[in-house]
Amino acid sequence: MSDAHAARRERLSQYCSAGGADAALVTKPANVRYLTGCAPCGATLLLTRDRALLALPAELPPDDTGEHPYAAELPHLVAAPDQDTAEAAAAAATGLRVADLAVEEHDLTVTRHRAIAEQAAGVRLTDLNRAVERLRVVKDDQELAELRIAAEIGDQALGELLESILVGRTERHLAMELERRMIDHGADRAGFPVSVGTGGHSGRSDHLPTDRRVEEGDFLTVSLGAQYRGYTVCATRTFVIGAAPAPWQVELHRLVFEAQRAGREALAPGVPGGTPDLVAREVLRAGGHHEERPRPFGHGVGLEVREAPQLGPGEMGKLDNRVPVTVGPGVHLPGRGGVRIEDTLVVRPLEEGGPELLTITTKELLAL
Amino acid sequence: MSDAHAARRERLSQYCSAGGADAALVTKPANVRYLTGCAPCGATLLLTRDRALLALPAELPPDDTGEHPYAAELPHLVAAPDQDTAEAAAAAATGLRVADLAVEEHDLTVTRHRAIAEQAAGVRLTDLNRAVERLRVVKDDQELAELRIAAEIGDQALGELLESILVGRTERHLAMELERRMIDHGADRAGFPVSVGTGGHSGRSDHLPTDRRVEEGDFLTVSLGAQYRGYTVCATRTFVIGAAPAPWQVELHRLVFEAQRAGREALAPGVPGGTPDLVAREVLRAGGHHEERPRPFGHGVGLEVREAPQLGPGEMGKLDNRVPVTVGPGVHLPGRGGVRIEDTLVVRPLEEGGPELLTITTKELLAL
Lengths: 368, 368
Description:
33% helix
């Protein structure tokens, strides 16, 4: 692991040098984790041309040996009680003769930025310009392996739920059961709150589970994703409750299935990020469905549930090889419910077999 | 509800006027909720001398009527897709001829603050100086009622768990069961991840549950808090597993119990915030236990799990009537475990009966 992290830090150092900064102060938790492999709450990483220094909060409980629990990983310092780790690291930067320090202006509050400037007197503060987020877009082998395991865990949890009795149970109970099953199968936690929508709630993205109970004839939309070693994938499936789906349900499911397939098949290195969304949306529009305020049907995943690249309809940036993204179109009919189907896939060139599907649970319209 | 929220907004308006600002831009989610009663993710409140305007994100799903789901509550605008609500509200402020706009510099990132400044050309941006956090310290009747219900929910969940078989179950399973039971009893959610520590993990604050199984003779420390209508309380209890606690366990529990009682009894209006911590710590020190880097034994609670007032050993600010706080001393012996006991209480004057205990589950050393 630590070789991979050292390589990531080396790439960031090179980026800083090229931009004229002689050090970077990394405060955003997902970025600290990406560069160090450890995720203590409130840690800050100071990265100069030739060294990495992790500033840890005083409140982090020491382990049973009395040592600070991340001591073995990287050179570190421990902030004073009530001292911000970013301030402690900024003070250390002055001791290391840093002249230009790039900070994460999209993460630091105005108050914290001012405190850093006070600690780093004489140091010029610049913006790191989301450099770490951009490094994070293309995943290495270790990251892809962890995303595959995260996907497997979600598939297992969902598979088990579908074998149980669903009628009469509430959305909230089903959501909690899925969270528990993911943790049982080895997830760190649910990567985001599981969404379960039944009846009129089905087909929505980000529906918050309610006390509505599953009834015969309902659509049931489940959206879940396990977090494994920090990495999260997303999967959404829509099923029907009872033996015989109504004709409108079969028809709507078929349409969303086609739209989602078109989106998946559009994924390839070099394709504009907005293309999968556009082709999926075109299928839905041809079927008579369009949204006035479209929300993007997909996004990048990794150490954050939603991260770069953006995949909304207007995105022109090109997709890269080894970038995991979601494709998740849906239709929601007010009062009736709807269908949403979402996968996480890794962009791969055709000669390597095309997009790699991580979330392999069936997308057929199962009648449960 | 809305009268209480209007009264809170009126107090903030008066504060702004007194400070020379003619409007406030509130972006911190807990503060938006405090002032409006609604908590849509990413909303911003613009409060001028004579009006309140809520800026809502475009991505918020409309409800089944096609209306934005918070439309009925307050005058509002909907930001453009991908537009930050704070930018949308700042642009609206220029239309309302705002000259001095107080923003939350402790919440806004540098990047967001810059974008607001660009939208609000010609408007002078100042700092709101955590004014809403300070208004939030003393709770009104509605807030105290919600905190009482949150405490009851946690007590019920813990009481049920103690009636079940514990030996052989993992810390993670016990933590998940407590979360589920709190939701079953009406909690919005767990206010923070439930902590369950057994054996060598007992007595720690903020221990993350592991796969360690409960064994005979273990101390078991459980720390939990339900969130009810946004408000969270904290309770921590330590029990022993098996029929006969060892003499060191009985002794250590008695000591922490005494320390916690001393801390609780020190709560009163006008007392310095650090006093409960100091008196509890003195009892532990007399018993031979002291920490080199002391973490505060208590903190304020409300719409955030940890909010003002601060209650660390050095805090000199005076406690007020109607302020809910936690008192939670503990001792952790490396390798052996320990005891932590924490309550949430509302500061009240002696003539009203003294501090009001919200978390009433027994603090005796139950042998389970």
